[in-house]
Amino acid sequence: MGVLKDELLKAIWHAFTALDLDHSGKVSKSQLKVLSHNLCTVLKVPHDPVALEEHFRDDDEGPVSNQGYMPYLNKFILEKVQDNFDKIEFNRMCWTLCVKKNLTKSPLLITEEDSFKVWVIFNFLSEDKYPLIIVPEEIEYLLKKLTEAMGGGWQQEQFEHYKINFDDGKDGLSVWELIELIGNGQFSKGMDRQTVSMAINEVFNELILDVLKQGYMMKKGHKRKNWTERWFVLKPNIISYYVSEDLKDKKGDILLDENCCVESLPDKDGKKCLFLIKCFDKTFEISASDKKKKQEWIQAIHSTIYLLKLGSPPPHKEARQRRKELRKKLLAEQDELERQMKELQAANENKQQELETVRKKLEEAASRAAEEEKKRLQTQVELQARFSTELEREKLIRQQMEEQVAQKSSELEQYLQRVRELEDMYLKLQEALEDEKQARQDEETVRKLQARLLEEESSKRAELEKWHMEQQQAMQTTEAEKQELENQRVMKEQALQEAMEQLEQLELERRQALEQYEGVKKKLEMATNTTKSWKDKVAHHEGLIRLIEPGSKNPHLITNWGPAAFTQAELEEREKTWKGKKTTE
């Protein structure tokens, strides 16, 4: 609940400072009433219109301070907030109060909607102290995410140059400076508005809406068992699926917990790249577009379930917390180093004071020695021996003091050398941190390149082995077919020779048969002509003369004059002729 309260306070702080027109840290009670009512509405908290009046009943006139409003805000609003409100609607309400006053009037590469999303991302990445700022490390993280989403390459040198020109008196950028930095296209050169807008939306979905992965896939129905394309959105504890990516028509949810699991399925029913999500009461069969998408979705869902088992936050929130802890650790180390340097400086000053004290003592001793010298000159001769002894003793003391001064000077030089070594260690530590960052980036790049080269080499080696086997099989098949074709060619040549001989024999026989046919044809024509002339004569003298012909095996027709000289068919033909003549008459 404390994390949610901190996130809400950041957006409310923007709205409050926008209402503070004269930058005095005070806002009128009427404006706070409107702000409180709007907050209760969007946060779904019961609104008590009397509470604000009761809270400020001793301050009926003039504005009230931010410090005076905070107890009311905590007691009557923030402590009653539950995690059941629309965070986007809440942020948009606070954004509406502050955008007109603070957003730059100069033309930007991004739209006002994109600026709103950058504003929400700023609240997520900013430090937990007021006034809100985003430190250079988080600016670099955000710009890298945007560049990656746009498909471009990160220009580290350009960002380092930007940090060099950064104002030394500032620890970071305000939200409006961040919007202007992204909107002026300094780190998105060569990209159009649509590409930048899509990149901002992708980063917004990941960091703010906790969208771990999204995309189109096919889902098998539970009742009709048909396959339908759906837009899936994976979040830390739920998978929602919609008709399309505009998220307007939601078709259902897959609730995830530590008991869920995801399994790969073999291809079936004409569907490929299948996997199964098992929940407490249902199972969901899903088909990805290709093997890569299938593996990405299985890995993403598996990681989400694993985080649920551990009770860990989403990866981007955990990474943000680690970055903050690292900055606190580095800041603590830097403070410790500064403290040590201050201690060394204080020790150095103490040594200087001690040396000054010793010098003063030496001067005082010299002064006393001169006075005593005068006194000794004025004393009697008998005291000269004692004076000499005292003088030797003073010389010895002076020598010891000088040795002490030399020793203190040596110690001071050692302390100064230690200070320089600590300063060198601090610079080397900074260089080592930069080298470690670069080494990690280079290692990740080389690892990806090696993985891609190994995958390409494996595929090419498999393809070459396949071609080699096919070539050997083709060579063996070609040799066998060549031998068989040679045998067939020899057999066909022999058969062709025999067929040519038979053709010549048949040609000869055909000619002989044709000659015989011509002779028989001539004889037949002669016989036909002779028979026709006889038939004409018989027809002319029908019934009077009967041509003597060889007897027929069929029964003969009998006329009044004896057996007929015609057949039954000729009789029928003659009857038809007679009937035709009668009809004509």
From TrEMBL:
GO CC annotations on file: actin cytoskeleton; cytoplasm; lamellipodium; nucleus; plasma membrane; postsynapse
One GO process term, biological-process aspect: positive regulation of actin filament bundle assembly
UniProt subcellular location: Cell membrane; Cell projection, Lamellipodium; Cytoplasm; Nucleus
UniProt entry keywords in alphabetical sequence: Cell membrane, Cell projection, Coiled coil, Cytoplasm, DNA-binding, Membrane, Nucleus, Phosphoprotein
GO MF assignments: ATP binding; DNA binding
Entries under SMART domains matching the protein: PH
Coiled-coil annotated spans: 316-530
Main location: membrane
Domain of life: Eukaryota
Pfam families: EF-hand_SWAP70_N, PH
Subunit-structure text: The SWAP complex consists of NPM1, NCL, PARP1 and SWAP70.
Name of the protein this chain belongs to: Switch-associated protein 70
Native species: Rhinolophus ferrumequinum
Organism phylogeny: Eukaryota, Metazoa, Chordata, Craniata, Vertebrata
